[in-house]
């Protein structure tokens, strides 16, 4: 039997709930979720974190661990989607020497590595059926069965799991065990996508500018008002991760201490000088001009495929056609972003 680890509860004196301040949000929906997580952090409850890519599931899992009495113990993150089915059992639960042909030595699995701490099972929807069965056994009996082992090994592990798949759908399709699903979702939270909390965008921008200032050794003060307006309307399919990447890229591209619109992807590679926000009205691009260039860029990126371009632009195909007509680009085919409407009309091309 392993010795039980004794943990000092937050020896730093830092309030365990204060740790959740590192999840930047002012959205009432997300704040409610943080309240649930703060309450659950102190317990051993299994938490299932759901939500689209980039919404902060990994980030939250680490915060839960750090706010829990297990914070001095290990935090072991496992990406279930990255483990081939044949290796999943051995990776997670370990194996004894000689358990199978390649088992030259004993291997301690990820569950045992997490003893006294937290295991974070990422993309749990991708776990193999055999590993699902063993996981259920571990959750129920607090032991692991190493592959080829004779005796169960007791483990003291708190389980957090994440998925960006509808697990319930996987259960009804027979791809995910129902009993395991109900065992995992003692607490389930769905982190909202960024488009449902646009009020978080300015706060997150400020946070990432600070983070990148430290990382890149810069002194950027923030974003111009126009750049912020652009971001507050941007669809962010990749959620917070996409926003973070955008800020990082902008800070690498800009020499100034302000991030201007031209440093954001709307203008990358499409001739940006006229978009500069210096208040010279004669130089200032009209919305129609920006739209025209953005549509041309989408067509260029997608090899002039209008369906794909429409998808990229977040509009349907018929809307794209209407816009192309409205912008007198209806005949736009093989043109690139620098072609003027008059030329484009002459150029014709595939529809
Ligand atoms: N509310 C937030 N405050 C500060 N940083 C955040 C927040 N949400 C996400 N991040 C940061 O955004 C990035 C993406 O978050 P994370 O990796 O947790 O997303 P995820 O939901 O696990 O995505 P995936 O499903 O693709 O694995 C990370 O750098 C993370 O630290
Ligand atoms: Mg993740």
Q: Tags for this entry?
A:
Rossmann fold, binds adenosine-5'-triphosphate, binds magnesium ion, two-stranded antiparallel sheet, 351 residues, disordered C terminus
Summarize the structure in words.
The structure is a single chain. The chain is of the alpha/beta class and 351 residues long. The protein has 14 helices and nine strands. 41% of the residues lie in helices and 9% in strands. It has two domains: 16-192, Rossmann fold (3-Layer(aba) Sandwich); 200-345, Orthogonal Bundle (Helicase, Ruva Protein, domain 3), CATH 1.10.8.60. It has a five-stranded parallel β-sheet with strand order 2-3-6-1-7. The chain has a two-stranded antiparallel ribbon with strand order 4-5. Residues 1-14, 267-276 and 332-351 have low confidence and may be disordered. The longest helix is centred in the middle third of the chain and has 17 residues, at 200-216. It starts with 27 loop residues before the first helix and ends with a helix. It is elongated. The structure holds adenosine-5'-triphosphate (ATP) and magnesium ion. Magnesium ion binds at residues 57-58, 122, 162.
């Amino acid at each position: 039997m392993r010795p039980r680890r004794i943990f000092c509860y937050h020896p730093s004196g830092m309030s365990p709930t204060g740790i959740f301040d590192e999840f930047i949000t002012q959205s009432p929906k997300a704040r409610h979720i943080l309240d649930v997580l703060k309450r659950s952090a102190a317990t051993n409850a299994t938490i299932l974190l759901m939500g689209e890519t980039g919404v902060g599931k990994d980030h939250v899992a680490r915060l839960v661990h750090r706010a829990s009495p297990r914070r001095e113990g290990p935090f072991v993150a496992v990406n279930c989607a990255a483990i081939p089915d044949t290796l999943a059992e051995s990776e997670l639960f370990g194996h004894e020497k000689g358990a199978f042909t390649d088992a030259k030595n004993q291997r301690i699995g990820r569950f045992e590595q997490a003893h006294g701490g937290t295991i974070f099972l990422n993309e749990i929807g991708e776990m193999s059926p055999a590993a699902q069965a063993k996981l259920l056994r571990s959750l129920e009996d607090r032991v692991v069965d190493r592959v080829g082992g004779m005796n169960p090994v007791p483990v003291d592990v708190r389980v957090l799991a994440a998925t960006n798949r509808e697990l319930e759908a996987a259960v009804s399709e027979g791809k995910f065990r129902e009993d395991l699903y109900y065992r995992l979702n003692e607490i389930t939270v769905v982190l909202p996508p960024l488009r449902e909390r646009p009020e978080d965008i300015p706060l997150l921008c400020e946070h990432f500018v600070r983070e990148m200032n430290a990382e890149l050794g810069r002194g950027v003060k923030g974003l111009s008002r126009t750049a912020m307006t652009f971001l507050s309307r941007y669809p962010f399919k990749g959620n917070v991760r996409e926003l973070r990447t955008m800020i990082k890229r902008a800070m690498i591209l800009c020499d100034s201490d302000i991030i201007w619109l031209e440093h954001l992807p709307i203008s990358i590679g499409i001739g940006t000088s006229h978009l500069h926000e210096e208040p010279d009205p004669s130089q200032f691009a009209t919305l129609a001009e920006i739209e025209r260039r953005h549509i041309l860029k989408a067509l260029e990126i997608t090899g002039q495929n209008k369906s794909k371009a429409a998808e990229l632009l977040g509009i349907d195909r018929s809307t794209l056609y209407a816009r192309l007509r409205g912008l007198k680009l209806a005949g736009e085919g093989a043109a690139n972003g620098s072609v003027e409407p008059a030329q484009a009309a002459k150029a014709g091309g595939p529809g």
